[in-house]
């Protein structure tokens, strides 16, 4: 009976296996499925190649395993490697490895929210290849103006950015960012140390820019 069941599984086309694996959200389960046999491994690879979104939020991931999955996700548009409740282990090395993936130039959304182990070096490396980026969340990190300069240079299509609690960014970085990213629609600066005068300066450059906290809450000069 076991042999018959195995034969039935073997007859499943790889395309069908890939469709089934596309519905699996557990990376642990995908890793186990990939080790079953060569055909299942190919099915898992094909399912990753079809994914347009990958979220590692809630998973304990390290640099190598994250980069390996992203490299197989050729159709990827949205990447979320936010800090997980188990403690994200992503570092600048991981961002560098991810930046080498072919899909990075097509990403429209990236979230690095709350990852404490990354610095400007890793962020700039990743962003330098994310030329299609429209939405970026780097809130809760220790980035500085250096990252904002890199974003300004590499992301002309940027529409929204979250800098929540990025306490090392300054007025200089924000002004350069808004001045160069002319499609920017919204910027979240909750918890930063920039002054009201900086917000006024940003609105002078881009009057339609939505600043969070809301610009309407700012005192009139």
From TrEMBL:
Keywords from the UniProt entry: Signal
One GO cellular component term noted in the UniProt record for this chain: SCF ubiquitin ligase complex
Signal peptide: 1-33
SUPFAM superfamilies documented for this protein: F-box domain, RNI-like
Highest taxon, organism lineage: Eukaryota
Domain F-box intervals: 12-53
InterPro entries recorded: F-box-like_dom_sf, F-box_dom, FBXL15_LRR, Leu-rich_rpt_Cys-con_subtyp, LRR_dom_sf
Pfam families: DUF7885, F-box-like
Keyword Lyase: no
One GO term of the biological process aspect: SCF-dependent proteasomal ubiquitin-dependent protein catabolic process
PANTHER family: PARTNER OF PAIRED, ISOFORM B-RELATED
Name of the featured protein: F-box domain-containing protein
Source species: Liquidambar formosana (Formosan gum)
Species classification: Eukaryota, Viridiplantae, Streptophyta, Embryophyta, Tracheophyta
């Amino acid at each position: 009976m076991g042999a018959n069941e195995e034969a039935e599984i073997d007859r499943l086309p790889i395309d069908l296996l890939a469709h089934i694996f596309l519905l699996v959200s557990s990376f642990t389960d995908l890793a186990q499925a990939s080790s079953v046999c060569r055909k299942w491994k190919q099915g898992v690879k094909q399912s990753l190649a079809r994914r347009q979104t990958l979220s590692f939020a809630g998973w304990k991931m390290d640099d190598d395993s994250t980069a390996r999955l992203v490299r197989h996700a050729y159709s990827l548009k949205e990447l979320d490697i936010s800090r997980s409740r188990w403690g994200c282990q992503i570092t600048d090395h991981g961002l560098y490895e991810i930046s080498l993936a072919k899909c990075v130039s097509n990403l429209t959304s990236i979230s690095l929210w709350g990852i404490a182990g990354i610095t400007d070096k890793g962020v700039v490396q990743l962003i330098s290849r994310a030329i299609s980026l429209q939405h970026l969340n780097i809130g809760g990190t220790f980035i500085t103006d250096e990252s904002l300069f890199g974003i300004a240079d590499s992301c002309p299509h940027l529409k929204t950015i979250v800098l929540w609690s990025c306490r090392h960014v300054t007025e200089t970085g924000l002004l350069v960012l808004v001045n160069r990213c002319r499609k920017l629609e919204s910027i979240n600066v909750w918890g930063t140390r920039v002054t009201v005068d900086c917000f006024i300066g940003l609105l002078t450059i881009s009057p339609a820019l939505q600043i969070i906290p809301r610009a309407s809450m700012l005192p009139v000069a």
